[in-house]
Amino acid sequence: MWLDFLAIRVNSEKAADMDFTINVNMPDRDEQIVVEMSNATLTHIVGYTEDDATLSVEINRSDLERVMTGEVRLLDLIKDGTAKSTGDTSVLDQLASVLDLFDLGFELMPGTGAQDLTKAANPFAQPAPANTNGG
User: Is CB count within 10 Å lower at the N or C end of the chain?
Assistant: First the structure.
């Protein structure tokens, strides 16, 4: 679902000329995902890899979850050796550069006074889940 969320955030005008593939291998779960940016659209397929991917990343799922929550950046995990990569890591910066952050302070009703409530965040971070404890 995280990759679906990233795909929704892609600004297609900014991504118009981008074309790359990223293999994500999670050895602890024996899971592979290929992520593709083409035609200004980010897609992914679980259970596949691309032989000539622009970037391949090997990372444990628990470490990837830290990226999803914005605790760490994937590039930092690659730099410190937690994740392994082969290929062009600059595609991660390219991807981050086309992700829009949604404005949480939009005006619901005319005259309610919209304000920007969106905090600066790691572009790959998933927002915290809603509180469902009833209070």
Answer: C
Q: Is the CB of residue 44 less than 8 Å from the CB of residue 35?
A: yes
Which residue, 36, 38, 80, 69, is CA-closest to 55? Answer: 36
pLDDT one-digit tens code per residue, 15-58: 999 999 999 999 999 999 999 999 999 999 999 999 999 999 99
Tally of structural domains, the chain: 1
Each residue of 114-128: pLDDT tens digit? 666 666 666 776 666
d(CA 105, CA 108): 9
- Give the tokens for residue 123: 């572009």
In a domain, 23, yes or no: yes
**pTM of the entire structure?**
0.75
Instruction: Evaluate whether residue 112 is within a structural domain.
Output: no
